[in-house]
Design a protein that fits this description.
single chain; TIM Barrel; 8 strands; globular
Amino acid sequence: MAATPWTAGTSRLARADDAAAAHRHHADPATLPAAWLHHRLQVMPKVELHCHLDGSLRPETMLELARDANVVLPRTTPDELRAFMRVDDARHLGDYLARFDITVSVLQTADALERAAYELVQDASRDGARYIEVRNAPRLNVHGGLTLDQVMDATLRGLARGERDSGTIARFIVCSLRHWTPDVSLEMAQLAVRYRDQGVVAFDLAGGEAGHPASAHAEAFLYARAHDLNVTCHAGEGAGADSIRDALVVCGAYRIGHGVRAYEDPSLVHHLRDRRIPLELCPTSNIQTRVARSYMEHPIRAYFEQGLAVTINTDNRLMSGVTLTDEFVHAATTMRFTISDLAQCTLNACDAAFLPLDERVMLRRRLEAELDTHHAESAQA
């Protein structure tokens, strides 16, 4: 494979013949025109690994689904509902998670789940995503009479239809929640394994960390890994570095959802770096849950500079009020990421994707080619 600015390393860009492109890819983004930067980052090819279905609904869709299901929502117009659902008043992760009761209430039918999944893939595609892993806890969607299999079938139909119509590859991660009993988590892991060849690529444990160690659900992780299913785990968000270590050592997580508080244990940071364990970081969400005080104080830049496998994600597009482009803009304008750095984060995410090797190699080649084109077009813009 021919060397590109991405395969040859970021220093290759500095040696590029086109000085304008090199400048814009390595310049302080704060010095670049805001409209130009937003547009270039919007059209930049991206990969998203950490996005919750029930946290990423369109407000317009929520209102329609609520009318169909006779559910009363706290606001009656899309703009009002959008503003209400954005969590700017959380004291901690628990407050942030409380908003999910609202979205889950309108995701209790097969049609609603299929539509939400389809629209999320469409939204991700318009955001420049070439690949997205969508996650959800299916047990939350059975309160209206659906079976777990019906929940899975509807969600996977929506993702597959979204992929066909948009070209964005979409895969599914089955979640359990930390406050559920271990037997429920095992049931979710078994469900994920059963659908492994139908679009499910991993098992995850989400929910509030405080008082709910991942190790309590070790049997579920063991079952998934024993059946050759990938595993990731939310950790280092509502609890500290010990929670990350628990997810890695006891549960065998291949990736860490968030991992913000790894800095509390320098030895753990070195381990994450040396083993190339990907971090699914979500800057805006991390600020909303008070695990980071601001974009400037978020540790993502330090982790990137230390060589960790940093990826950038939205977490919940509705509750955080962001697109992946928005997160890239925040990274560029307040966290000192150059466009070249963001390209590397995209390739980090590609390399960490829970895809079979041949599909991952194809995706990376596609991304490298598109990043080259993006690089050339940015020079001429």
